[in-house]
TrEMBL record:
It catalyses: L-proline + NADP(+) = (S)-1-pyrroline-5-carboxylate + NADPH + 2 H(+); L-proline + NAD(+) = (S)-1-pyrroline-5-carboxylate + NADH + 2 H(+). It comes from Candidatus Phycosocius spiralis. This is Pyrroline-5-carboxylate reductase. The lineage of its organism: Bacteria, Pseudomonadati, Pseudomonadota, Alphaproteobacteria, Caulobacterales. Its main location: cytoplasm. Keywords: Amino-acid biosynthesis, Cytoplasm, NADP, Oxidoreductase, Proline biosynthesis. It is found in: Cytoplasm.
Amino acid sequence: MKNRIALVGGGRMGGAMLRGWADLADTMDFVVFEPTPSAEIAKLIEQHAWTLNPDPKGLAPFDCVVLGIKPQHFTIVCDQIVHDLVDEQTIMVSIMAGIGTSKIAEMTHVQHVIRAMPNTPGQIGKGITAYWCVPNVPFRGQALAIKLLSPLGRVEKLQHEEQLDAVTAVSGSGPAYVFLLAEAMAAAGEAEGLERGLAERLAWQTVIGAGALLAQSGQSPQALRRAVTSPEGTTAAATEVLTEGGGIFTLVRRAIEAAVLRSRQIGK
Ligand SMILES: NC(=O)c1ccc[n+]([C@@H]2O[C@H](COP(=O)([O-])OP(=O)(O)OC[C@H]3O[C@@H](n4cnc5c(N)ncnc54)[C@H](OP(=O)(O)O)[C@@H]3O)[C@@H](O)[C@H]2O)c1
């Protein structure tokens, strides 16, 4: 028998998962709750004869309910949809930032909760998602959740729920730090006399290419950096400025610390 999966919230992240779930259609059936589906998502649901926005009454039980909504919609979604989808066996997978598993269990009336933190490259299947699984979740539930999260990219298991604050700070917010570096490099190029569009293309493509090289070479960032740094050369001159007195390491440490603190505050 096919696993019955409900997705509540088919926006950027939910939609990205749904695209990948097409490969699981032989073993799983999907029902999607999304008030404003994009044309692409509506077409995907129609193509696979999945169900969009049915009356939730009487649909329980689902093997797994995936919450892809924003935290501010959580209460209303529990009342209007989730309570009608679950029984004591249902696995609840949440990607909502800042809402802990005990709160999710209390609000959804489900004991088997998995809380995951993806990041924006997940929208194109190049992200990384770390999850915490409450100890009572049966192994098959965890395996199901990993399959459902995999379309977003790599999936990593955590040892403690508290680690999600550090995950949020490193990989959840991380893409923004890389975009900021691309912005800063382009601005510096412009300041050195390059035309703005050219400076942006040089900086952006450098970030894109460096990421792809890191992905494909199998080498560490340190090894790749050392390989392009000749003694007394231009890269060495720039790296010296970037690392002077701790430099970028100190700054990034402080930035991540601030993000961890904010994540803890939001989660309270
Ligand atoms: N984007 C990221 O990088 C990222 C990273 C980590 C975690 N997250 C978490 O992932 C979650 C989703 O983020 P996202 O970027 O995918 O947000 P999003 O694009 O806004 O998707 C949320 C979707 O939920 C829908 N929704 C609202 N009310 C609903 C209801 N009553 N029933 C069913 N669906 C409803 C929204 O529809 P409307 O547009 O019509 O309101 C929207 O399509 C958030 O909790 C966020 O914290 C996101």
